[in-house]
Automatic annotation (TrEMBL):
<dbReference type="GO" id="GO:0009102">
    <property type="term" value="P:biotin biosynthetic process"/>
</dbReference>
<dbReference type="GO" id="GO:0051539">
    <property type="term" value="F:4 iron, 4 sulfur cluster binding"/>
</dbReference>
<keyword id="KW-0479">Metal-binding</keyword>
<feature type="binding site">
    <location>
        <position position="216"/>
    </location>
    <ligand>
        <name>[2Fe-2S] cluster</name>
    </ligand>
</feature>
<feature type="domain" description="Radical SAM core">
    <location>
        <begin position="63"/>
        <end position="288"/>
    </location>
</feature>
<dbReference type="InterPro" id="IPR013785">
    <property type="entry name" value="Aldolase_TIM"/>
</dbReference>
<keyword id="KW-0004">4Fe-4S</keyword>
<keyword id="KW-0001">2Fe-2S</keyword>
<dbReference type="GO" id="GO:0005506">
    <property type="term" value="F:iron ion binding"/>
</dbReference>
<comment type="subunit">
    <text>Homodimer.</text>
</comment>
<feature type="binding site">
    <location>
        <position position="124"/>
    </location>
    <ligand>
        <name>[2Fe-2S] cluster</name>
    </ligand>
</feature>
<protein>
    <recommendedName>
        <fullName>Biotin synthase</fullName>
        <ecNumber>2.8.1.6</ecNumber>
    </recommendedName>
</protein>
<dbReference type="Pfam" id="PF04055">
    <property type="entry name" value="Radical_SAM"/>
</dbReference>
<dbReference type="InterPro" id="IPR002684">
    <property type="entry name" value="Biotin_synth/BioAB"/>
</dbReference>
<keyword id="KW-0408">Iron</keyword>
<comment type="similarity">
    <text>Belongs to the radical SAM superfamily. Biotin synthase family.</text>
</comment>
<dbReference type="Pfam" id="PF06968">
    <property type="entry name" value="BATS"/>
</dbReference>
Length: 345
């Protein structure tokens, strides 16, 4: 009796071509639709490597095998009046974290020194706040020129909601980029925060854009959002013209009551990174907070879709030792981009 056997080689071509067709589409300048982006997130695990191969084609076209490194400085911790449900620094958080006002000049300069030593291209100055007060604005305006003169770093400021005037002042003092994450899709936003709106965040990004600075904005995966919410956010970021997109994965923190959080697998994290790459093909995609916990041993695969990452710790959680990041980049055959080599979208 004879029987028909599945042939892996024969079956591989249609599977691979499904995702390569999306890569062809975006490389030809035709944006992914929301439906197509949803298909990426719903990719079967058995097709994951084929999907990553397609995402890597797009990543390599725009960014070669370069990896840009970022270092975060939590310049003001806790003491925030907002109720963002995912955040250990919110007014509702019971997490045991350091709480302090904006750091001194010497500490901010020392953070810049560490960023330079770790081959980071960008130094991110972050404060917990609804928006910066005048003292905080003046501290940033004073320190940024010093940092740029001494270390030549690209400066990203994350100061909360900004007015048009504040954005203009940041541009004038030398800030290159402002981070203000959308965090999730518009339809899901009121489930994670009630003290400000999704529209407030979009308005801040528009103020940054009008001031002539680069926009950095991304989201957090694992807050009970749907695939449609993630796709909606990715398309919004694309349409706003955001330059850099950090993709965070929710880190459960004791004392932070995030009722909608859900487990995400390493495979789903990789699909999310691939979706952002294909929706926003020429934008910097950064593997951000939670990569160590959620991607685990699959972290290196994330860099086939993403082209940047944080090195060192995050705001109130620990990252892995920088040496492990450097080794991972070397093992992939990738290279850390220097300031002189970096290109801006």
């Amino acid at each position: 009796m004879s029987e028909t056997l599945d042939c892996p080689t024969a079956n591989a071509a249609p599977t691979a071509s499904r995702w390569q067709a999306l890569a062809d589409q975006v490389l030809a300048g035709e944006p992914l639709t929301a439906e197509q982006a949803g298909e990426v997130l719903a990719c079967p695990d058995s097709e994951l490597l084929n999907l990553l191969d397609a995402a890597y084609r797009v990543r390599r076209h725009y960014f070669a095998n370069q990896v840009q490194l970022y270092l975060l400085m939590n310049a003001k911790s806790g003491l925030c009046p907002e109720d963002c449900g995912y955040c250990s620094q919110s007014k509702d958080s019971q997490a045991e974290i350091p709480k302090y006002n904006i750091l001194s000049r010497d500490k901010l300069m020392d953070g810049a020194r560490v960023a330079k030593e770790r081959d980071a291209r960008t130094y991110c100055i972050v404060i917990s706040a609804r928006g910066p007060n005048e003292r905080e604005m003046k501290a940033v305006e004073t320190i940024v020129p010093e940092i740029k003169e001494k270390y030549g770093l690209h400066i990203c400021a994350c100061l909360g909601l900004l007015t048009d005037d504040q954005a203009q002042r940041l541009k004038a003092c030398g800030v290159d980029r402002v981070n203000h994450n959308l965090n999730t899709g518009q339809g899901h936003y009121e489930k994670i925060c009630t003290t400000h709106t999704f529209a407030d965040r979009v308005d801040t990004l528009k103020a940054v854009r009008s001031a002539g600075m680069e926009m950095c904005s991304g989201g957090i995966v694992g807050m009970g959002e749907s695939n449609e919410d993630l796709v909606s956010m990715a398309i919004e970021l694309r349409e706003l013209g955001v330059h850099s997109i950090p993709v965070n994965f929710l880190i459960p923190i004791e004392g932070v009551d995030m009722p909608h959080q859900e487990h995400v697998t390493p495979q789903y994290c990789l699909k999310t990174l691939a979706m952002f790459r294909l929706v926003c093909p020429d934008r910097e995609i950064r593997i951000a907070g939670g990569r160590e916990m959620h991607l685990r041993s699959l972290q290196p695969l994330g860099l086939y879709a993403a082209n940047s990452m944080f090195v060192g710790d995050y705001l109130t959680t620990m990252g892995q030792p920088p040496e492990e990041d450097y080794q991972m980049i070397r093992d992939l055959g990738f290279e850390i981009v220097s300031e002189s080599e970096a290109s801006v979208c």
